[in-house]
Structures are given as structure tokens and as C-alpha cells.
């Protein structure tokens, strides 16, 4: 277990779909994430819900270092499909929270031009000395027509715009955070592989260079097996997505492959023997609908 053990830690103040539920209230979500770590990455994980917000060990922030690499990977493949370069495109970020801020940092670090990026928060666009959105000179004058626009909306479960609406409005490629629509951007696509690599090389922390490298590996993985506008990123259960081999890392690749194979075989056996029951689809649909109804009231 040593060298392959992580904690899935939360103070439960921002649990997906529930918000602040006290430390104990978030345990179920953390248990689910721990199960995904084992099944997808062969990583031994324990769920921990705590009051303290301090941690003196290497930390991988779920909504930052996990979803941002997946978003960057999807963007790279979307650009391949529309034959555009990252450094040439204009981008708009809706939201300036921790997840979007990390996405922005990785995208700019990869080679995007920050002068071609506009960021909005709840008060409008971000710019020096802003008083309102109309003072931003980037919005003055005539707008240019965008060919084959790419919309990466990572909301989940409530979407402010749905795929059919985006396509009707002209989006060529559209992604969401939901698994019942094409192009799901889910942190579980990147998290197991990033954590597994961190553990194997005994890294002291997870850096932007590590996550950018993971993004490119995820993008290459999907491109190799084939990408189309409605399928630009791999899914968490695709064989090999968490074991993408790095140059000169054959031994670690074999170890990741072995650990994940054993973890999945163990989980499949538990399912076969009915120790793990199949989740009722009706209950899942009901949960999604309840979350949407609560959020839209």
C-alpha cells in the first residue's frame, strides 16, 4: 500500500449539488471518489472529511488540477478538428472562480495569447479600473464573425445552455460536465492518471507542467483512437486512459497497468458476486431531476 495511498479530503463546505453540508455530510461523495480512484487508477484511497483547512502534504485540488487538464485536452482536440492554433484564437471565460482561473493559467502557459482572452465574473468583464462592462475597449467597435466556434461549458448538473441550444446558435463543438451528453469534461478522466503518476515518481507537489503534460497525453490518446465534434475527449472507463505511457517511463507504465487491471478485476468480481449492487438508473435520473429543480427554483 505504501507509495500508492491517497486521502480524498474535504471540509464539505462546497459539496457538488449540496453546498455546505458539514464535514460528515460530505462523506458519501468522498467515498464515491475513493472508489473511482481504485477502479480507474488502481490507487488505494480513503475518504476523509475534516474541519481543518490546513494540509502539509502534496495536494491535488479536484476542481483545479483535475478538471483543468481535461478542459485543456478537450480544447486541444477541438482545435485540431477546426484546424486552428491555440495561440491564434479568441476566448471568453464565463466565471472567474478557482476552476476557471486554473483553466486559464494552464491554457495561457501552453501558448494562448492573454490579449485575446476576456474573462467575466458576476460583475462583468475583468479589466483595470472597471466600472462597468461598457468601459472595456475590447467590446467597442464591430465584432468579428467566428467560424466553427467552440463552446466548453463544464456545468453539472444544471446547464445554463444545453447542447441543442448551443448548436442552434452556431456552436460547432460543445462540451458539458454531464455524462448524458456528448463530450463530457469530467475530472475522473484525468485525476486517476495524474495522481498515479505523482505517486510513482514521488513528486512533492503537482505542478502546472505536470498537468499540462497530462493534458497533452489525454488529447493524444483521444486523437489516436479517433475524434469527431461530438467526441473530442476520452471517457473515464476507456481502457488505457489512465495508463498513457510517458517517454522513458516504461517501468512506471507497466506498474500503472498492473495496478489498474487488478483493481478492476477485483471490483468486477464484487459486482459479479452481488457484493456491489447495480445502481438503479431510475434513482439516478430522479436525483438529477431533483438537483435541477432545486437549482432552478
Automatic annotation (TrEMBL):
It is an enzyme of class 1 (oxidoreductase). Pfam families: malic, Malic_M. Its EC number is 1.1.1.40. InterPro entries: Aminoacid_DH-like_N_sf, Malate_Decarboxylase, Malic_N_dom, Malic_N_dom_sf, Malic_NAD-bd, NAD(P)-bd_dom_sf. Residues 1-80 form the Malic enzyme N-terminal domain. The keyword Oxidoreductase applies. One of its GO terms (molecular function) is NAD binding. Residues 64-252 form the Malic enzyme NAD-binding domain. The keyword Metal-binding does not apply. It comes from the Eukaryota. Keywords: Oxidoreductase. Gene3D superfamilies: Malic enzyme, N-terminal domain, NAD(P)-binding Rossmann-like Domain. This is Malic enzyme, putative. It comes from Entamoeba invadens IP1.
Amino acid at each position: 500500500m505504501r507509495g500508492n495511498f491517497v486521502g480524498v479530503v474535504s471540509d464539505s463546505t462546497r459539496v457538488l449539488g449540496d453546498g455546505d453540508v458539514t464535514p460528515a455530510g460530505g462523506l458519501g461523495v468522498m467515498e464515491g471518489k475513493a472508489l473511482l480512484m481504485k477502479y480507474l487508477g488502481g490507487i488505494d484511497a480513503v475518504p476523509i472529511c475534516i474541519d481543518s483547512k490546513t494540509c502539509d502534504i502534496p495536494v491535488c485540488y479536484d476542481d483545479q488540477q483535475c478538471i483543468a487538464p481535461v478542459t485543456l485536452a478537450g480544447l486541444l482536440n477541438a482545435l485540431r478538428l477546426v484546424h486552428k492554433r491555440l495561440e491564434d484564437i479568441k476566448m471568453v471565460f464565463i466565471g472567474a472562480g478557482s476552476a476557471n482561473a486554473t483553466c486559464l493559467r494552464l491554457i495561457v502557459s501552453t501558448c494562448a495569447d492573454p490579449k485575446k482572452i476576456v474573462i467575466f465574473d458576476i460583475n462583468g468583464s475583468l479589466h483595470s479600473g472597471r466600472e462597468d462592462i461598457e468601459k472595456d475597449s475590447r467590446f467597442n467597435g464591430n465584432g468579428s464573425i467566428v467560424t466553427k466556434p467552440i463552446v466548453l461549458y463544464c456545468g453539472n448538473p444544471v446547464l445554463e445552455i444545453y447542447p441543442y441550444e448551443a448548436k442552434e446558435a452556431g456552436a460547432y463543438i460543445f462540451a458539458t460536465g454531464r455524462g448524458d451528453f456528448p463530450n463530457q469534461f469530467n475530472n475522473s478522466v484525468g485525476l486517476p492518471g495524474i495522481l498515479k503518476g505523482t505517486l510513482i515518481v514521488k513528486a512533492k507537489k503537482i505542478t502546472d507542467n505536470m498537468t499540462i503534460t497530462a493534458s497533452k497525453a489525454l488529447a493524444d490518446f483521444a486523437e489516436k483512437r479517433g475524434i469527431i465534434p461530438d467526441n473530442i475527449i476520452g471517457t473515464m472507463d476507456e481502457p488505457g486512459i489512465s495508463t498513457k505511457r510517458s517517454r522513458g517511463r516504461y517501468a512506471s507504465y507497466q506498474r500503472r497497468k498492473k495496478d489498474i487491471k487488478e483493481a478492476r478485476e477485483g471490483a468486477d468480481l464484487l459486482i459479479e458476486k452481488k457484493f456491489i449492487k447495480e445502481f438503479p438508473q431510475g434513482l439516478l435520473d430522479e436525483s438529477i431531476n431533483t438537483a435541477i429543480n432545486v437549482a432552478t427554483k
